[in-house]
Amino acid sequence: MTFSTGEGKSPLVAAPVSTARRRISFAWLGVAPFLLFALLFLILPTMKIVIGSFQTNDGGFTLANIANLFQPSIVAAYWISIKISVASALLGCFFGFLIAWAMVLGGLPGWLRSPILTFSGVASNFAGIPLAFAFLATFGRLGLVTLILRDWFGVNLYGLGFNLLSFGGLTLTYLFFQIPLTILIITPALDGMRREWREAASMLGATGFQYWRMVALPILWPSLLGTFALLFANSFGAVATAYALTGSSLSIVPILLFAQIRGDVLQDPHLGYALAFGMIVITGIANFIYIWLRSRSERWVK
């Protein structure tokens, strides 16, 4: 339809009204497997655990399962799990940061970066029975390193008090995947450190120690704390490695949970749900701290 605007003027054409309907994007099919996987193996099991924590065997509502978490034995298991998680997270952050710093800023040959990152990607996901067997074959009573130290150097690890099936042994085992995970997380943060910051600090008369104390570490601090929180959650929820390595000799929450769900003597599924619910709360807090601090560190780097 056209409208006349007078002599010598071009007509105005009325803009057609768009009536096209929004089409369903087939791009959603690409994420459908992920959404289905998250629903079946994350969301629904979590809902079952949370609901089961407040149920009796006949399906009624109760707070007894939550109250039973404050039994001395269960509190002790949580405390041991927290101590192991804190120890492995602290040591993992420390040694992982040193390796990442040496690789990015310490002057190591550039050809080492790719092998280190590749190994870290594999080792950070190496856990469970294979990892437990590897450490038993290495640091067990008849392990390779144990025998070498005993026969070649006269050092008896177990005579000095070391025991792989203990707090220290489990912490040492967890470091195998904690250190590589730290390397993978901290390396991008170190890559984001700008050379101009170091040059500006040097021009103002700052020493290397002052630069790290007053410039670099404040910028990297959120990343380090976030990495610690993630490593804590990663260690706290590990069950296969601990169970395969120590069995029931070390009473930590994942092993106690396994006994309540699958055991013949201590079987109480709803108490197991409550134990798992407590683990979800603790690891959820740790992951929330990690995400929050990670976002802060990304703003700093930008």
Automatic annotation (TrEMBL):
<feature type="transmembrane region" description="Helical">
    <location>
        <begin position="211"/>
        <end position="232"/>
    </location>
</feature>
<feature type="transmembrane region" description="Helical">
    <location>
        <begin position="86"/>
        <end position="108"/>
    </location>
</feature>
<feature type="transmembrane region" description="Helical">
    <location>
        <begin position="271"/>
        <end position="293"/>
    </location>
</feature>
<dbReference type="Pfam" id="PF00528">
    <property type="entry name" value="BPD_transp_1"/>
</dbReference>
<protein>
    <submittedName>
        <fullName>ABC transporter permease</fullName>
    </submittedName>
</protein>
<dbReference type="InterPro" id="IPR000515">
    <property type="entry name" value="MetI-like"/>
</dbReference>
<feature type="transmembrane region" description="Helical">
    <location>
        <begin position="129"/>
        <end position="149"/>
    </location>
</feature>
<feature type="transmembrane region" description="Helical">
    <location>
        <begin position="59"/>
        <end position="80"/>
    </location>
</feature>
<keyword id="KW-0472">Membrane</keyword>
<keyword id="KW-0813">Transport</keyword>
<feature type="transmembrane region" description="Helical">
    <location>
        <begin position="26"/>
        <end position="47"/>
    </location>
</feature>
<dbReference type="InterPro" id="IPR035906">
    <property type="entry name" value="MetI-like_sf"/>
</dbReference>
<keyword id="KW-1003">Cell membrane</keyword>
<feature type="domain" description="ABC transmembrane type-1">
    <location>
        <begin position="78"/>
        <end position="290"/>
    </location>
</feature>
<comment type="similarity">
    <text>Belongs to the binding-protein-dependent transport system permease family. CysTW subfamily.</text>
</comment>
<feature type="transmembrane region" description="Helical">
    <location>
        <begin position="238"/>
        <end position="259"/>
    </location>
</feature>
<keyword id="KW-0812">Transmembrane</keyword>
<keyword id="KW-1133">Transmembrane helix</keyword>
